[in-house]
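Data availability (excerpt). The following record was deposited with the supplementary files.
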Amino acid sequence: MKGIFLIFASLLICNFTFAQHSDESQNIKQLNIYRDSLVSLGKKFINDTIDLERKNANYNFIKTLVGALKTPHSFNYSFDSVKSISVLNAPDNRFRIFSWHVMNEDGSYRFYGTIQMNTGDRLLMYPLEDYSPMLKNPEDSVTDNHKWYGAQYYKIIRATNADKAYYVLLGWKGNTIKSTKKVIEVLSFNRENKPVLGMPVFEGNGKNRKRVVFEYTRQASMLLRYVPGQNLIVFDHLSPPDKKMKDMPQTFGPDLSYDGYQLKNGKWAFVDNLDMRNIPEERDANYVDPKAQAIIDKGAVPTKKRIKQ
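Predicted structure:
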């Protein structure tokens, strides 16, 4: 009887393992189908020259992405072949953040995204709703995911302040036909584990900022990147081409000097006139910047341009 029991138990374990592997295989197969649809829709909302077609493609993209994320254990699926969006995992794997943009007919942008929490086989996510036009003083505002200062992120940094973890996000924020923006955002979670955007941790220049926003001419590129070995966020110093234009940020550009924010005691202290010879070089990543918006196949499809981190 003992031998029969052991055989029966081993068969149960084998059947459970087989069923588990079968479920995982089915989930991956389903996610691959979703991924292929996302690739196609992403190309359309980036490349289509008709405003309504871009928006319709984005609407279907959102529905498809939500369906994909509802698949059990979707958190472990990378979506790295969906080049139209950015997907960043938190350094501690607590969550990941999806972000992307769609160009409006007037050359401005609307941003979309969601935060997916690492919860195993159940989906917990917080959609990000672009509230940019309503945030008149974004550097002074603490908001939530319903009032997001939209951007497409390319770097996430974990820090702590008074034993509370928070995350710094570096992002590109296309603005208008005249200017581009980049942003240093802060993401944290409250006691209910809901996202909070903005935190007064950027000190310097006589001001304590809750996020940092840069604006510069659309004809220029701006460096904004993190140097992990020095706990330093480094960026181009932006200045006007003429002193008479000091109140016109859409004319600003890099002046070959560099400033930064360095992490000290949980906050980021402003540092000016950095010596870039002491900053290790890092390869810039490629991001879709549809500012030129010219067709590749027919003469009007947005082109890709390197955006400096």
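Summary of structural features: The CA atoms of residues 231 and 263 lie 6 Å apart.
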